[in-house]
């Protein structure tokens, strides 16, 4: 009885964990992409203004914040 229950529950738990991991990775990757896009925009004219720096800094902190 318990073997049958574990046989059906294990893939469900694995699937839920896999889906959660996928969306967590996707969210982190999106944050990194936003930072790189902001950096690319700031370096376009070979000068980084204070506003661009503040934007870069906030994106950089967002990459390492716990979500």
Task: Describe how the helices and strands are arranged.
Layout: H1 2-43, H2 50-64
Helix pairs in contact: 1-2
Give a brief outline of the structure:
This protein is mainly α and 67 residues long.
How does this model look, in words?
It contains two helices and no strands. It has about 70 residues and is mainly alpha-helical. Helix 1 packs antiparallel against helix 2 (about 50-65). The longest helix has about 40 residues, at about 1-45. The chain is rod-shaped, with a radius of gyration of 20 Å. About 0% of the residues are buried. The model has no long low-confidence stretch (mean pLDDT about 90).
- Rounded Rg: 20 Å
Give a count of the beta strands, DSSP E runs of length 2 or more. 0
Q: What quaternary form is this?
A: single chain
General shape: rod-shaped
List keywords for this structure.
67 residues, mainly alpha, 2 helices, rod-shaped
